[in-house]
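Support case: user asked for a sample of complex input and structure output to validate their parser. Sending the pair below.
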Amino acid sequence: MTVRSRNAEYWTLGVLKWASIAFFIAITAFPLLYMVTLSFKDIAEVLLNPANFFPSWSEVSSLETYRNVLRPAEEGGRGFVRLLRNSALVALATVLITVGTGTLAAYAAARLRFFGKRTINMAMVLVYLFPAIVMAIPLFVVFTAIGLRDSLVGLTIVYLAQTIPVALYMLRSYFVTVPVEVEESALIDGCSRLAVIWRIVLPLAAPALAAVSLYVFMIAWNEFLYALLFLTQSPELWTLPLGLQQLDSQEIPRTVLMAGAVVISLPVILIFFVAERYLVEGLTAGSVKG
Amino acid sequence: MTQGPGDELREINSAPEVALVEEGAGPSTPPSPGGSTIRQREQRLAFGLIAPAVIIVLALVLLPVLWNVALSLRELRLIELQNFNPLAFDFSLENYEEVIGDSDFIELLRTTLLYAVLGTSLSILMGLWAALVVQSAFRGRSLVRGLILFPYVVPVVAAALLWRTMLNPQIGILNSWIQSVFNTGNVDFLTSRSFDIQIFGLEFGLPAAFTMIILFEGWRSFPFAFLFILARLQALPGELYEAAEVDGASALQGFFHITLPQLRGVFAVLFLLRFIWTFNTFDEIYLLTGGAGGTQVVSVEIFEYLFGRSDIGAAAALSIVLALFLAVLLLLYFRFVPTEETG
């Protein structure tokens, strides 16, 4: 009797499991597929029959929507090459400054004893959770007043406030897990702290630094609110998220919009699939112990 | 700080003769004849290392927040920004009266709170479900795992555009499916307040745009919950389940009596984080519905005050109200949820 009910339970769970797997594939793979296939379609075809979202070979090979998106505005395109450049500049600058300052601060927070350490650690977590919209208004006012509003430099500065706490938190939880013995013996041998950081800590932390860099890059690359607030009036400075959103408010074929969505998504998806393991570990570090 | 990091370098280099013996508490605090000087050096070095990060963050977070309070007490329009004197002393509470006295204020808070609670719950439940499925071994598991992360990784602008396209009344594939399955007639789900569905001849009214923003939030953030829950599940000791099986417990009993209790800490952390973020959400709703069809939330309303009505003072006041409301909710949370579960 118990064996039979066990068997029934086993089969029910098995069916449920495969149904669940199918469900999760459907809600993730289908939107991805739809985005990619529709981005190649000719809009006239889609209007005739919305269910026909697979492109023909001639549609794929013509790349018409992608040409449209990437062509400069002067030639009747959407100027996404310029947007790509703007986004890349902001994201790379954010990564460099965040990882540089974040590494030093995280090392101090993990290894050194100093007055106010707990307060600073707590404050960083709070900042991480703090609503971006609450800082948005005063930053908008100040940056307008000092002339930094319509500039990529201003945007980068604002991104730092969001990325440094994340980087600090992730790197600190990494440094805490690294044994201190190597550093101690280097200190005994007369190495200075800064030399220890440069010669021992940084090389050992390379995978963590890579993960944090990629994560910060993704945050800056995807950010929308501050770009909208700061850059709306300067189309030549738009980042990709802002440029794509602004297209949506015009009369642009949705197939072209999907091509834009693919262009903006491709870098982060590639990054994620290359470095998934490190990113996941960095993200969930410290939160699975309790 | 008058000393740069270079001075620290020389200073510490100049004292290699000091014996590095453990002083008790810290593993790397060498005592010296002078007693506290090494400790002071360590402290100075630490401040030097941490200063750039802390200064940037404080200048961009703490100062703006304080300034936001000042702005909220002023009558300030967008066009007056050029000749704005931050030090002038003419405070009033008019902005708060304007914002709280607005006839839609209660509705606004209600929508925001409901969105945060439902969106958070949906993302955690879906994350739990996905984690339980992916935890067991099957062919193509790593592919499914990667796919599940797609909604979280894809930029929010692209995700919102994708949903807007799928739900487009003319060409949207999802829109035509919902219409044919539930017999809804031609509905634009992102701008309508409600729609009627027919199942087995019965007709229901459902909120349209509001349902969509909840589903969008659940879809976008369940991978986050999934990652945290999966990490915790994989850290659970297998002996617990073996012992339960020996004692004749079924898989379901194992789930309810072993798995769920072990996940309580993760649930508490996830709920806290996701609730805070969802409560403040701007991007998802602004991009998907723009606040149409009964989806106006506080963050989008703040943006409306700022750009739609060019009223900086009122926007600042509403953002302070948002922060205070959130702070009260968090205090209640910590009051009623035992703290060891949130650590």
